[in-house]
Amino acid sequence: MMKLVIVGCGGMGTYQAQKFRALGAQIVGAIDHNEEHLGRFCETFEVEESYSNLDMISSFSLRADALSCCLPDCFHVFCCEAAVRANLAVFCEKPLTSTQEEADLLARLPKKHPFMVNFSKRHIPALSAVQGVLSRGVLGKIEHIQISYLQSWYKSHIWGDPEEVSRWKWRLLPAYNLGGCLSDLGSHLIDILFLLFGTVRYEKKTHEVTTPALVEYGALLRVGNNIPCTLHCSYQDPEWDDSLQLTIQGSEATLTMNTSLDRKQVTLTTKDGISTKVEGIPSVSTYQRFFNAVRSMTTVTPAFEDGYRVQQLLEVMR
């Protein structure tokens, strides 16, 4: 059994507690400055030990196996540093940190236990279909890539009024979410590009909308063997509420993925217009992978290094 401490007991902390407890983890501690969130969380998950101060992370050394950081971005560095120093395995929400300086601080710490950054979009079944198509080379020479993560909640209020719902409110405050939608949604896109093509290089920003938080962002990148790639992320998309999209244009065929339409399959369209569906293989979730790694004390991906390289690119893209 994995003994887990959850830090940040709002929407994401509750979601993660459900996921980990379903795998057999025991939630042995909770930390949150919001008394209402903390009380409700502890009652729901029968947590006996709770605190309002991050300084108490160290008290779980030798009494817990792992810690999950579900805090706003600006608190990741303090939480993860305390967890590593307490010899706890770390499951950190993306992005790794708010700044490169903070990421460098964590990089200097010796890590004896698994450290995972929760790039959960890696394990969408459709993405495994993308990897299969690329490995077979059926697209021919890749000529252009478009990748986007589009949400609507800032204007549609589909998940509640962002001025009232804390889960969304902090995302609109630069002091808590320095990179706005780029750090939040764009970090997933950058991680996917690294996963699929190995290298990602920033060329230039194409547009941005700030309110003052960054709610929409676009950029031109180069990936793999100097392939041009356009990246777009938004909190205010007029069409899609929560959609991860990818188009890879090749000399022989084009691949399209849209998770709002199909999370399991991608569409492959040849130059003569013939389209076929390619189904992906269900993969193990980040929660299961972390749970297994803590039990076996093995390395796990997406690891600290994956979060670090994404943070390096976020730093120059802002």
From TrEMBL:
Keyword Oxidoreductase applies: yes
Record key words, sorted: Oxidoreductase
GO molecular function ontology, one term from the record: oxidoreductase activity
Domain Gfo/Idh/MocA-like oxidoreductase N-terminal, first and last residues per copy: 3-115
InterPro entries: Gfo/Idh/MocA-like_OxRdtase_N, Gfo/Idh/MocA_oxidrdct_glycsds, GFO_IDH_MocA-like_dom, NAD(P)-bd_dom_sf
Domain GFO/IDH/MocA-like oxidoreductase per the UniProt entry, residue ranges: 130-255
Tagged with keyword Acyltransferase: no
Name this polypeptide is given: Gfo/Idh/MocA family oxidoreductase
Originating species: Sphaerochaeta halotolerans
Organism classification: Bacteria, Pseudomonadati, Spirochaetota, Spirochaetia, Spirochaetales
